[in-house]
Automatic annotation (TrEMBL):
Domain called DUF317: residue spans: 57-114, 141-199
Renumbered residue ranges of the record's region Disordered: 241-267
Highest taxon in the source lineage: Bacteria
InterPro entries assigned to the protein according to its UniProt record, in alphabetical order: DUF317_SPDY (IPR005523)
Biased composition (Low complexity): 255-267
Pfam families: SPDY
Name recorded for this polypeptide: DUF317 domain-containing protein
Native source organism of the sequence: Streptomyces bungoensis
């Protein structure tokens, strides 16, 4: 009796070689769609021009996410418009910033803020990063010394968040956030930066570095597709739930249905 083939696998589908890479901060950029498809599923508008850089805008038009690989140095730019509670802010991440770490910040843009006060350093300390003061700067470095997070206080009075990763050969990336970038977004970023979980890269897309560890895995295209679809489905479900909650929220002002004399008011 022949073993029944799972219907998600096409006839003759061949497994492809991929690699799990650790630490994730040195895994290279990855597939930009990891970020963009989640935002699209969360109701963001894709305003990219055909053949041009990625450009997406939040449903309320207050935040824009762009990725431009066609200019130097290129990479990610995330810009938040000033509102009543906070000023204008921006984040800039180089092209080799892993998309899984970038998504820590961009995914958080689609979710409500937590009621708890954010703490950028807590996720790093939980993973045994070394935190300390260096002059006017507060710094955290990963246990292997390849990644860092720093709050810089410059002599001219300016400040910024500065982060990145670099191996001994000088390969890596940097990123910086303006000081008024919402703290919950910086914490979401630091959580993914510090995560010990490896990330997956296809053969030929693994950086040449003596400081990364890799494990070869065989993955069917349908499996990759299913994993990607699960992330998109989760984004759609969360967006639907938020929209439904807003639409069913009771009105804050009572609506008069009848006048004091018993006659209905005109609507």
């Amino acid at each position: 009796m022949k073993k029944k083939q799972w219907q998600g696998w096409g006839p003759g589908e061949q497994a492809e070689q991929h690699y799990l890479v650790q630490p994730r901060a040195l895994a290279g950029g990855g597939d930009v769609r990891h970020v963009s498809e989640f935002l699209r599923a969360s109701g963001w508008r894709d305003k990219s021009k055909t053949g041009g850089p990625l450009f997406m805008e939040s449903p309320d038009r207050t935040v824009r996410v762009a990725y431009d690989p066609y200019v130097l140095p290129g990479g990610w730019t995330i810009h938040g418009r000033a509102d009543g509670a906070s000023g204008e802010w921006s984040a800039h991440l180089a092209r080799q910033a892993p998309v899984e770490i970038v998504a820590g910040l961009t995914d958080a843009l689609t979710r409500p803020r937590s009621a708890h006060a954010p703490n950028v350093w807590a996720p790093l300390q939980e993973q045994n990063w070394h935190t300390r003061f260096e002059g006017e700067h507060y710094v955290a470095t990963s246990p292997d010394g390849t990644a860092w997070m720093q709050y810089r206080q410059n002599p001219d009075g300016t400040a910024m968040w500065w982060t990145g990763a670099q191996d001994k050969q000088g390969n890596g990336w940097t990123a910086h956030f303006t000081p008024n970038t919402p703290m919950y977004l910086v914490q979401a970023f630091s959580t993914e930066l510090a995560s010990p979980d490896p990330v997956m890269r296809p053969r030929g897309r693994v950086p040449h570095s003596a400081q990364i560890r890799t494990w070869s895995v065989s993955v069917k295209p349908s499996q990759l597709s299913a994993w990607q679809q699960a992330r998109i489905t989760a984004a759609r479900a969360a967006t639907w739930a938020r929209n439904s909650a807003r639409s069913t929220r009771p009105r804050t002002t009572a609506r008069a249905h009848a006048a004091a004399d018993g006659t209905r008011t005109r609507r």
